[in-house]
Design a protein that fits this description.
alpha/beta; Gyrase A, domain 2; Rossmann fold; six-stranded mixed sheet; 43% helix; binds guanosine-5'-triphosphate; binds magnesium ion
């Protein structure tokens, strides 16, 4: 018999309410034991006393007063019989409930993501929707949340399902052409199908050519601050994060390593990096200088892979003395002049800020947001984006097979290629061949989800 699984589904620690979820063939039976046989209607909230069962040393005593919700499979999140106990959120109540449930027949603690995995296995959602549940739980900014919701509601599945249908139709026509002799089929029988397959490949290519919008939104955008020593990079990081993340001092070369912090800029998740000041001369062979040199290598490395580079110029120092920071200027950079409160020695057209009196910071944030908008192609308007490298890989496999089919001469080989393309799409939604993937995907979840 399938195990009945249980877990604390709300966060650990003290809270007003703690939700314990139970799912499986014996979920209703354990409910009946805990409420002493009281009738619990499905999908109706019941306030009940929960009792220790007869087999327990504290038999007959009350564990807690809880709001109980029961669902009959398949009309539940997992597709199985499910019960939710909304208990008082104290560690003692939760502990008692969990250890008690563990003593019941065929009941065991759920693995991470196991509720969602059962939902997938019972056909309640496909893999992209299950992945979106994990993304929604991990979402830290409003745009991440929005993306996860769209995907959870089937945004990606519906596109891939539609494409799968088009392939299926193509395959049916190809197979008909194999099975019937030429004279039995109308002239140009395959033409519309080949046109549609080629259109389909264009649609997939368009979907893939998205500047990695969805993946970036999921993983976070990398914003790196570079500049000469003492330009005020660490001061800027501290102001943007409103915390004392990095050490600020008037000793040049204070920051040696890359320091990362996470930030929400207008809904975009941003990984902000402070770096060692760049300088090419006067670094010698001393241990101190070697460490600083390594810091500079890391700074440049990080800047290279960044989505946005903030080139921070010290406004109180002539530009010639700033080690050609400007040479790093490109499409991904924002030039910003700091220390606008001091007499200015730099005369270029750029945003001026002062981390000392906090001026210009709002404008800088607005500029960063604008750059991020550009990167994602004005975020919302452009339809649903794929969110994982595995989606991208399978889609490229699909286009490769379709392309080969279109180039093909032999009907049976063309049909085989279309079958391969269907398989690649099926892997994304989890319709085929994903057993080995499931552990990887669902281990991403926390327990209770
Ligand atoms: N007047 C003025 N001083 C500033 C401003 N921003 C930073 N400073 C000062 O400049 C010095 C260097 O600041 P940091 O933030 O440590 O500079 P950094 O770019 O991180 O320096 P390194 O880590 O050494 O590369 C400190 O003494 C700051 O107080 C500003 O806007 N105005
Ligand atoms: Mg610093």
């Amino acid at each position: 018999m399938i195990d009945t699984i249980f877990a604390l589904s709300s966060a650990r620690g003290r809270s007003g309410v703690a939700v314990i979820r139970v799912s499986g063939p014996q979920a209703h039976q354990s409910l009946s034991t805990l409420v002493h046989g009281k009738t619990i209607e499905a999908r109706k909230a019941h306030l009940c006393k929960l009792y220790y069962p007869q087999t327990h040393a504290m038999s007959g005593q009350v564990i807690d007063h809880a709001l109980v919700l029961s669902f009959d499979g398949p009309h539940s999140f997992t597709g199985e019989d499910c019960v939710e106990y909304h208990c008082h959120g104290s560690p003692a109540v939760v502990q008692d409930m969990l250890s008690l449930l563990a003593t019941l027949e065929n009941h065991r603690m759920a693995e991470p993501g196991e509720f969602t995995r059962r939902a997938f296995e019972n056909g309640k959602m496909d893999l992209t929707e299950a992945e979106a549940v994990a993304d929604l739980i991990h979402a830290e900014t409003s745009l991440q949340k929005q993306q996860a919701l769209i995907q959870m509601e089937g945004g990606l599945s519906s596109i891939y399902r539609m494409w799968g249908e088009r392939l299926k139709k193509g395959l049916a026509y190809l197979e008909a052409s194999i099975d019937f002799a030429d004279e039995e089929l109308p002239d140009g029988f395959l033409t519309p199908i080949l046109v549609d397959l080629s259109d389909l490949n264009r649609d997939i290519a368009h979907h893939l050519d998205d500047n990695r919008r969805g993946e970036r939104l999921r993983d976070g955008f990398s914003v790196v601050v570079i500049g000469v020593p003492n330009a005020g990079k660490s001061s800027l990081i501290n102001i943007l994060t409103q915390r004392d993340v990095a050490i600020v001092s008037d000793v040049s070369g204070t920051t040696r390593d890359v320091i990362e912090t996470h930030l929400d800029i207008a809904g975009y998740p941003v990984i902000l990096s402070d770096t060692a000041g760049l300088r090419s001369n006067d670094l010698g062979d001393s241990d101190h200088d070697k460490i600083e040199s390594e810091g500079i290598v890391r700074a440049l490395d990080r800047a290279k892979s960044a989505d946005i580079k903030i080139l921070l110029i010290d406004g109180s120092v002539p530009l010639e003395k700033q080690d050609d920071i400007i040479q790093h200027k490109d499409e991904s950079s924002l030039v910003v002049i700091n220390k606008s409160d001091l007499p200015q020695k730099v005369d270029i057209d750029a945003l001026k800020i002062s981390t000392k009196n906090q001026s210009g910071i709002e404008d800088l944030l607005a500029d960063i947001k604008m750059k991020l908008d550009d990167l994602v192609g004005s975020a919302s308007g452009e339809g649903v984006s794929l969110t994982r490298a595995r989606h991208r890989q399978n889609l490229s496999d699909a286009t490769f097979s379709i392309e080969r089919a279109l180039q093909g001469q032999q009907l049976d080989l063309m049909a085989e290629d279309i079958r391969l393309a269907m398989r690649a799409l099926g892997k994304i939604t989890g319709r085929v061949d994903v057993e080995d993937l499931l552990d990887v995907i669902f281990n991403d979840f926390c327990i209770g989800k």
